[in-house]
Backbone:
């Protein structure tokens, strides 16, 4: 009797699993792997599916760094047909690993040259954002200090002990900030800056969430300066208690702190994976990500700027400023992993 | 000719063992094979330091848990305490709380400007206090329950006899009850040590760079730096440590809770003061963070508010999150109950320590290394529903085994014999004796497995898809965005998860479940 019950259960489980597997076997499925923050209006995706007679299956590949490593691990049996979310800091490794099949979308013509990722079309820029220091207006005012004016100011004890940044080794904004400092100071100078800042009280957390949600004074932490994005002040307004789009506040509780050499332009792109089972549909998806509907939809979902020029932005973006960013030296983005390793040895584990 | 019990046991345990081979041993081996094992990493003082810290923090947690949980369990087993069974039952809740929820609660209470640390002006930033308290939050319940099991098997008449012969209460406890309950206490100590040494989410969220454990380093090396050969060396070292500790644990273990003696006296004077202090301490550590999360979901910047709950309840995605959570939870529950019961029956019949040890493996192996193994070994199955459910089942079924096994071992053999003597066939004897006596444990184990799976953040093990978002994923995503509404809504979702875990206990468990 007992065994019979168990047998029935086994049968039922098998049927359920088989049913679930069967439901996935629809014809012409396009698989798109993305980073975890990816979000787009489902209606737009439904339109794309209808227009191309395809079912789109999105797979979450972890955060940006994890996503790349998972693609490298599985390059012999690719997980997907297209990938969205790799950025300019990861493109060199993606190129080296031979992950991507070149395809230049016609829509790329509407993306300003400064925002294009590469000429071959391994990645087509969908959006861009600025990794930037933010500060908590109220908490900073309480310190009675003037705002720091340069990275040299920031490493001094009075400012370093007010600052928290996510680690370059385990977070993508952290990596971008590391590259910005290397670009600004050169390698040796950057290690010296980081070491001094750390000695003077700069806090390094693992991920962005730890820094922003726990240590940033706006969210109950002790540090009024945090490394985040230039769009975060707009997101603070959007996600504030009692947000009403018709009654926008005078200013955001936080603001960006554009110290020269501290910001980094992050370009996120979409591309076709080598070994894709549906290469033609994957190319259509690349075009779709650069189409007007998607471009207008993503800013308030992912807090980034649309790459195609002339796309209308939600009014809440008036609370975010775009810094002037100098182009980064090619040597800085050539092999970011080497710089991370050097940072780990020279700064994080230095005694 | 009927097969020997040992053979029957191994046959019964075949499906779960095969499952462990396919979902654990093979992927793990695949991970180790991918990049080779670079043992030289163990000469690096940095990683030796990580090993020392991993062992150190786990030992500290286990000692603290023993210091608080041991005496409390002894007093609970010797005195009539109102609400005793309720307390023991509620203590299962922290054990199945999702890590993120615990982190939210601990930070709300003890973080910078926390509700406790703020007014007292204590700054715990840069200390491992939160990490150790987090470990205790999850593991004090394990210690109290296992130690209670150990002490309750020591008959009060034995300590009573010692008292009659002139020993003081303390002396009776130390010279009579303690030696007899020692295996239970040691087993609790080792289990707490293991859970604390291997926990991943807590040190990741609360340890920062400075207090990273081996498991966190394994994660960094695999997920971010793709240095598989170095990660593999750490995995191998950690596995060696784990298997040694687990083997010791399995040898020490005695199953079952003793029958509580009737007519226990009420504690008085100093003993009562000590008892209630310990109860208060355990309640504070184990339920404080949970209450803080609930409160945080109801308190806005401008005082009490229902806005976060309204936000969660009106979000068009919430029904999907809830539906997925329940769907995956129930599917995994069926798998876990089935495999767990088979494994327990097999290990019981075969009297095999190997099977016993095997059932603990899924709780002991680094999920990070498994995740890589799944990608490498089963690329075609990644991001498919069967893989997701299988991964959830792997996490849940050991809890069923560990719950049913002690109940089976505690079955009085003579009862079965009596049934047979009275004319019952083998099947009928099992149906009328084995099943009713082990059903409560099965229900308890199933409740634990379900609650664990409900709160599990599946993405650690397998690639997921947006349409499979669960409550934990919704919580995690909100924590990934700026703004107070996101934090408040995350706490409201955490409350929903806790309510679900509580509900699964109420529906499934009669309060008899014990995990060992």
Residues:
């Amino acid at each position: 009797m007992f065994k019979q019950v168990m047998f029935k259960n086994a049968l039922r489980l098998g049927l359920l699993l088989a049913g679930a597997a069967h439901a996935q076997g629809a014809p012409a499925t396009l698989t798109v792997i993305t980073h975890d923050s990816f979000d787009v209006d489902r209606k737009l995706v439904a339109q794309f599916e209808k227009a191309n007679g395809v079912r789109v299956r999105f797979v979450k590949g972890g955060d940006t760094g994890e996503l790349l490593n998972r693609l490298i691990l599985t390059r012999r049996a690719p997980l997907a047909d297209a990938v969205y979310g790799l950025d300019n800091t990861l493109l060199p490794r993606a190129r080296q690993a031979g992950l991507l099949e070149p395809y230049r979308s016609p829509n790329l013509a509407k993306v300003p040259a400064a925002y294009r990722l590469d000429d071959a079309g391994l990645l087509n820029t969908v959006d861009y954002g600025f990794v930037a220091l933010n500060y908590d207006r109220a908490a900073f005012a309480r310190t009675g200090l003037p705002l720091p004016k340069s990275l040299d100011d920031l490493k001094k004890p009075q400012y370093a002990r007010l600052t928290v940044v996510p680690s370059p080794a385990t977070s993508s904004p952290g990596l971008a900030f590391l590259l910005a400092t290397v670009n600004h100071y050169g390698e040796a100078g950057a290690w010296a800056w980081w070491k001094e800042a750390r000695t003077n009280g700069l806090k390094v957390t693992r991920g962005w969430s730890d820094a922003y949600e726990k240590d940033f004074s706006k969210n109950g932490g002790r540090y009024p300066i945090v490394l985040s994005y230039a769009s975060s002040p707009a997101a603070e307004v959007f996600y504030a208690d009692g947000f009403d789009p018709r009654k926008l506040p005078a200013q955001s509780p936080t603001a960006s702190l554009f110290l020269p050499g501290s910001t980094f332009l992050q370009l996120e792109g979409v591309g076709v994976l080598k070994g894709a089972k549906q290469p033609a549909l994957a190319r259509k998806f690349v075009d779709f990500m650069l189409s007007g509907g998607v471009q207008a939809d993503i800013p308030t979902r992912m807090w980034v700027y649309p790459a195609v020029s002339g796309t209308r932005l939600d009014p809440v973006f008036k609370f975010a400023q775009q810094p002037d960013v100098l182009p980064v030296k090619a040597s800085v983005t050539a092999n970011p992993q080497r710089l991370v390793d050097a940072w780990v040895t020279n700064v994080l584990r230095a005694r | 000719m009927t097969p020997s019990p040992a053979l029957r046991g191994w046959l019964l345990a075949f499906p779960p063992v095969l499952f462990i081979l396919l979902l654990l041993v093979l992927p793990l081996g695949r991970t180790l094979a991918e990049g080779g094992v670079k043992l030289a990493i163990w000469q690096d003082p940095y990683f030796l330091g990580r090993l020392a810290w991993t062992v150190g923090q786990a030992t500290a947690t286990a000692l603290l848990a023993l210091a608080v949980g041991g005496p409390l369990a002894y007093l609970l087993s010797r005195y009539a305490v109102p609400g005793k069974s309720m307390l023991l039952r509620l203590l299962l809740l922290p054990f199945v709380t999702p890590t993120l929820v615990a982190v939210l609660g601990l930070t709300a209470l003890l973080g910078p400007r926390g509700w406790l640390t703020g007014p007292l002006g204590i700054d715990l930033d840069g200390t491992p206090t939160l990490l150790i308290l987090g470990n205790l939050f999850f593991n004090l319940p394990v210690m109290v329950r296992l130690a209670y099991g150990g002490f309750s098997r020591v008959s009060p008449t034995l300590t009573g006899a010692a008292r009659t012969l002139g020993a003081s209460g303390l002396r009776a406890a130390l010279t009579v009850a303690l030696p007899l309950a020692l295996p239970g206490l040691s087993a609790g100590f080792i289990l707490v040590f293991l859970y604390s040494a291997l926990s991943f989410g807590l040190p990741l969220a609360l340890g920062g760079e400075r207090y990273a454990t081996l498991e966190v380093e394994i994660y960094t090396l695999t997920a971010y730096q793709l240095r598989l050969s170095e990660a593999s060396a750490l995995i191998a070292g950690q596995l060696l440590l784990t298997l040694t500790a687990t083997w010791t644990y399995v040898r020490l273990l005695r199953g079952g809770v003793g029958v509580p003696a009737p007519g226990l006296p009420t504690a008085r004077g100093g003993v009562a003061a000590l008892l209630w202090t310990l109860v208060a301490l355990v309640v504070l550590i184990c339920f404080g963070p949970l209450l803080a999360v609930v409160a945080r979901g109801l308190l806005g910047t401008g005082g009490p508010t229902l806005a976060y709950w309204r936000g969660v309840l009106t979000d068009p995605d919430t029904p999907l999150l809830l539906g997925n959570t329940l769907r995956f939870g129930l599917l995994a529950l069926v798998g876990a109950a089935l495999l767990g019961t088979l494994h327990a029956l097999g290990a019981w019949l075969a009297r095999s320590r190997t099977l016993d040890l095997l059932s603990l493996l899924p709780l002991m192996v680094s999920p990070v290394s498994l995740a890589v193994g799944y990608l490498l070994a089963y690329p075609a199955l990644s991001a498919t529903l069967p893989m997701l459910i299988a991964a959830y089942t792997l996490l849940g079924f050991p809890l069923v085994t560990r719950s049913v096994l002690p109940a089976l071992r505690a079955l009085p053999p003579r009862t079965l014999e009596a049934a047979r003597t009275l004319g019952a066939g083998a099947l009928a004897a099992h149906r009328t004796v084995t099943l009713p006596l082990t059903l409560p444990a099965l229900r308890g184990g199933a409740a634990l497995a379900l609650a664990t799976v409900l709160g599990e953040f599946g993405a650690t093990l397998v690639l997921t898809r947006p349409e499979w978002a669960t409550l934990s994923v919704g919580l995690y995503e909100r924590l990934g965005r700026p703004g107070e509404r996101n934090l408040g809504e995350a706490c409201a979702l955490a409350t929903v998860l806790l309510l679900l875990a509580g509900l699964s206990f109420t529906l499934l468990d009669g309060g008899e479940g014990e995990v060992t």
Notes: Chain B touches chain A through 64 residues (CB under 8 Å). Residues 297-345+384-516 of chain B form a domain with the MetI-like fold fold (CATH 1.10.3720.10). The mean pLDDT of chain B is 86. Chain B is about 75% helix and 0% strand.
